[in-house]
């Protein structure tokens, strides 16, 4: 025992010594001379790389100093994060290339277009996009970026000159500035002078939500395809401006791991990815192996990670004619930590990232022509066998939702045209101003197919991320493939979201239907202004217009403001929210309820709070926060579980609990929440929180379950057997009872729902209490095991309960998934605004 303790002491001492005597020589190739006029990282940030965790402000400062000092580097700011930090991009190449950089870019893009067959790739530089630390608490990449940038700016000799003549490097030193800043603060403020590798040390256990995510707690490495965040929009714009041949994505994984580089699992590659892509990935991998062998670092490839979901940084290039490369480094999660592979130091993790960044540069230089030719082949190889000439999509009642889908397509350089004329296909109406045409015969047709296709058969049953993301289903828009364009002539104009309007000034009442996407924002604005607002629970007809379930009515009389001021307010609200508000002069309706009917329910201003903190899934919480704050301008009070017992709930009308583990609230907290509900509060809960609510007797729920027994499964196969039962993310069809308040604003009686849990609710015995119910053949796109599919059939994703004077609304699914699931946001908002009439 004493010998083991002594050896442990020696290991710690050696690593502490290496940490305390850090210099650039630990990282940089020693057979290279460096230009003394180029500032080293330490000369700018005040410490050696790896001695402290670099904060984003210091990282920014260093990159700007390099750009000033080196004629190999130009720098641009492409925008800001939610917290106002710059989104920098450095372009690094030889000075001669810098002088003709726009010409290089345009020639490179020509390679991907119809005339590119005539270009000679033997003298064209390859384009490499190197990006670091999209997860802020995986910081070795961003810290290594200073070394890579320094090397590219300061290294001298024929080798570096040859590299920079043949490669243009688009250099993104921090994919996630806000998350990096948050984690650096944590690691640095908990660092001791005497570094402590004990896994129990506070330094290695950052507080909720951690630095992985951006400001609104999004995993930005899932946003390359949806493009909903400012950081993503900046880099996707840069990507399409250049269409790089290779893109690298430097991550970290568990402390007890080693180092991973792609290719990943060979059976988990999306079918739209060409085989040549994986062959080139494997070729590039040999350069990483050689480089890591040289410094004695353990590594692995060909397992664990996959290339299926195109919304990840390492997979997104694969659908755009490039090669995506994922690097995963075992994380020290601080400065030095004990692991199964010995003492893991922060500098060691940085050195591995730096080493593979350089091996990528070498691979791209050496494989330059092959990479360029592959990219040309990818875009030239178009299939003309498809009968689909275009897609049409839209929602005749919801222009904003359709526009935002068109907006995403445009961000991916997919040509989208507004409808020139109204037409009907398959019983669905597509209206000018509410619908769009997307031709399939265009440059980026492959990514269009990836975004619109439905897929339900797979080679493998395990997925690293979601297995389905069909965008028209996510947006709940009608869509159809077109075999000809004779009935769907497109406009030449770009997609445009028109301003709303008030049809006429009224001294009686105003009406607007609940279908449009931004109606919750409009309603909240009215209620916040103290305007009396009612909702119609059943359809009616007035002035030859049929108003649907959930129509909003604003009486003119007995308001806090006079008629002229109300009209002005409504014009501003209509314009800001892209809705049409109808002025009417009578309350007498030829069909349905009159405007003075007692069936109209008065709506109240909601005041919202949400549980956050340890035990709550930060992704789910962040999606709710983002939706309310960014899209609907509705305030949300985020309450941490650690002080929930001390707050007064009485001022809140609704309390939201995102996906949650079983240990979130204390006994006192649970009792307080129960009493608040009984006194009139509304609880809205999601996903696994339903199990928690049942366990603690908030509601009586009946779950559909089936014991799963392994038969003829070996010990070696057990992980795959269990993994096949994970519903990681797929799309399913449900029936809607459109008369129920939870379904107000939906024009169809079918809805696509995203699901990534195995929580299955039995339907209520009273049919009218099942306003949303999965069909008997629910799978629309994605993977689910046969066993779970049987449980899902005819189950219900939503239930509402009365408890005393209050209500409990429960969702088995995430209605706000990754900010791009526009189609089910309205369910969540209905649970807020219409809770009292359910």
**Coarse morphology:** globular
> Measured on Cα atoms, how large is the radius of gyration?
29 Å
Low-confidence stretches: 1-14
DSSP E strands, number:
35
Describe the strand arrangement of the main beta sheet, using strand numbers. 2-3-6-4-7-9-8
Strand content: 15-25%
Helix fraction? 25-40%
Mean pLDDT: 94
Euclidean distance between termini CA atoms? 67 Å
> What count of helical segments does DSSP give?
23
| Main sheet: strands, sense, barrel | 7 strands, mixed
Question: What does the oligomeric state look like here?
Answer: single chain
Descriptors for this entry?
alpha+beta, 6-stranded mixed sheet, 838 residues, disordered N terminus, 23 helices, globular, 31% helix
Indicate the topology.
Elements (H helix, E strand, L loop, with lengths): L1 H19 L12 E2 L6 H5 L10 H14 L3 E8 L5 E7 L2 H4 L2 H10 L15 E7 L7 H15 E2 L1 H9 E6 L4 H13 L40 H13 L3 E8 L5 E3 L13 H21 L27 E8 L5 E4 L2 E4 H21 L1 H13 L9 E5 L4 H13 L5 E2 L4 E3 L2 E3 L4 E5 L5 H8 L18 H4 L3 E5 L18 E2 L6 E4 L6 H10 L5 E3 L3 E3 L2 E3 L3 E5 L7 H15 L2 E5 L6 E2 L8 E2 L5 E5 L5 H14 L4 E5 L13 E4 L9 H12 L3 E5 L2 H7 L22 H6 L6 E7 L13 E6 L16 E10 L4 H7 L5 E6 L2 E6 L13 H9 L5
Parallel strand pairs: 4-6, 4-7, 7-9, 18-24, 27-28, 27-29, 29-30, 30-35
Antiparallel strand pairs: 1-5, 2-3, 3-6, 8-9, 10-11, 12-16, 12-17, 13-16, 14-15, 19-23, 19-24, 20-23, 20-26, 21-22, 21-25, 31-32, 31-33, 34-35
């Amino acid at each position: 025992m004493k010998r083991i303790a002594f050896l442990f002491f020696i290991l710690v001492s050696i690593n502490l010594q290496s940490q305390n005597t850090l210099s650039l020589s630990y990282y940089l190739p020693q057979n290279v001379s460096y230009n003394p006029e180029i500032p080293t990282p330490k000369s700018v940030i005040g410490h050696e790389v790896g001695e402290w965790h670099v904060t984003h402000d210091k990282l920014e400062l260093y990159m700007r100093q390099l750009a000033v000092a080196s004629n190999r580097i130009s720098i641009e700011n492409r925008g800001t994060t939610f917290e106002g930090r710059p989104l920098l991009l450095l372009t690094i190449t030889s000075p001669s290339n810098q002088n003709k950089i726009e010409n290089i870019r345009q020639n490179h893009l020509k390679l991907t277009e119809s005339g590119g067959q005539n270009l000679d790739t033997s003298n064209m530089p390859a384009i490499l996009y190197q990006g670091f630390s999209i997860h802020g608490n995986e910081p070795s990449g961003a810290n290594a970026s200073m070394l890579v940038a320094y090397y590219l700016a300061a290294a001298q000799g024929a080798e570096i000159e040859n590299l920079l003549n043949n490669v243009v490097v688009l250099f993104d030193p921090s994919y996630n500035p806000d998350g990096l800043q948050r984690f650096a603060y944590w690691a640095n403020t908990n660092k001791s002078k005497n570094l402590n590798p004990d896994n129990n040390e506070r330094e290695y256990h950052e507080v909720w939500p951690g630095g992985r995510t951006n400001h609104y707690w999004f995993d930005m490495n899932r946003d390359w395809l949806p493009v909903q965040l400012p950081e993503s929009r900046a880099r996707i714009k840069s990507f399409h401006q250049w269409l790089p041949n290779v893109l690298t994505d430097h991550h970290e994984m568990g402390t007890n791991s080693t180092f991973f580089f792609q290719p990943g699992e060979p059976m988990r590659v999306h079918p739209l990815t060409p085989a040549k892509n994986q062959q080139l990935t494997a070729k590039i991998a040999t350069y990483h192996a050689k480089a890591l062998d040289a410094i004695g670092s353990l590594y692995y490839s060909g397992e664990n990670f996959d290339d299926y979901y195109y919304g990840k940084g390492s997979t997104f290039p694969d659908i755009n004619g490039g090669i995506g490369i994922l690097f995963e480094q075992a994380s020290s999660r601080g400065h030095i930590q004990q692991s199964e592979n010995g003492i893991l130091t922060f500098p060691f993790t940085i050195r591995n990232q730096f080493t593979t960044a350089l091996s990528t540069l070498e691979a791209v230089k050496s494989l330059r022509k092959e990479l360029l030719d592959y990219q040309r082949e990818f875009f030239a190889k178009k299939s003309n066998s498809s009968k689909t000439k275009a897609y049409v999509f839209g929602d005749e009642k919801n222009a904003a939702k359709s526009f935002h889908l068109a907006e995403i397509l445009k961000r991916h350089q997919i040509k989208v045209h507004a409808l020139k004329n109204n037409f009907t296909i398959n019983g669905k109406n597509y209206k000018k101003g509410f619908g769009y045409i997307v031709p399939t015969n265009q440059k980026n047709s492959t990514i269009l197919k990836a975004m619109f296709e439905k897929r339900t058969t797979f080679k493998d049953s395990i997925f690293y991320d979601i297995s389905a993301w069909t965008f028209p289903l996510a947006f709940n828009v009608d869509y159809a493939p077109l075999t000809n364009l004779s009935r769907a002539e497109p406009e030449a104009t770009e997609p445009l979201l028109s301003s709303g309007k008030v049809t006429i000034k009224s001294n009686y009442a105003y009406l607007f239907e609940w279908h449009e996407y931004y109606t919750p924002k409009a309603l909240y604005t009215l209620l916040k202004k103290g305007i009396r607002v009612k909702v119609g629970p059943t359809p009616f007809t007035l002035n030859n217009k049929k108003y649907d379930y959930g129509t909003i009515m604003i009486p003119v009389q007995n308001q806090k403001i006079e008629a002229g001021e109300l009209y002005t307010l409504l014009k501003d609200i209509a314009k800001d929210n892209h809705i049409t508000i109808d002025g009417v002069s009578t309350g007498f309706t030829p069909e349905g309820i009159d405007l003075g009917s007692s069936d109209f329910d008065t709506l109240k201003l909601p005041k919202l709070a949400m549980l956050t903190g340890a035990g709550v899934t930060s992704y789910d919480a962040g999606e709710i926060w983002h939706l309310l704050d960014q899209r609907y301008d509705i305030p949300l009070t985020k309450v941490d579980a650690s002080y929930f017992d001390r707050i007064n709930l009485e001022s809140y009308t609704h309390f939201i609990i995102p996906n949650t583990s079983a240990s979130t609230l204390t006994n006192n907290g649970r009792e307080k929440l129960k009493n608040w509900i009984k006194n009139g509060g509304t609880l809205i809960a999601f996903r696994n929180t339903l199990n928690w609510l049942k366990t603690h007797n908030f509601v009586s729920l009946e779950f559909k379950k089936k014991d799963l027994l392994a038969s003829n499964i070996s010990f070696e196969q057990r992980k795959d057997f269990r993994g096949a039962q994970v519903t990681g993310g797929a799309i399913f069809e449900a029936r809607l009872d459109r008369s129920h308040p939870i379904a107000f604003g939906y024009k169809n009686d079918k809805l696509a729902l995203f699901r990534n849990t195995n929580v299955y609710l039995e339907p209520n015995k009273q049919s009218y209490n099942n306003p949303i119910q999965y069909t008997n053949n629910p799978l629309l796109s994605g993977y689910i095991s046969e066993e779970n599919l049987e449980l899902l059939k005819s189950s219900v994703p939503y239930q509402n309960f009365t408890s005393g004077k209050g209500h409990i609304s429960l969702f088995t699914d995430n209605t706000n998934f990754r900010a791009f699931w526009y189609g089910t946001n309205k369910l969540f908002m209905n649970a807020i605004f219409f809770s009292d009439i359910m």
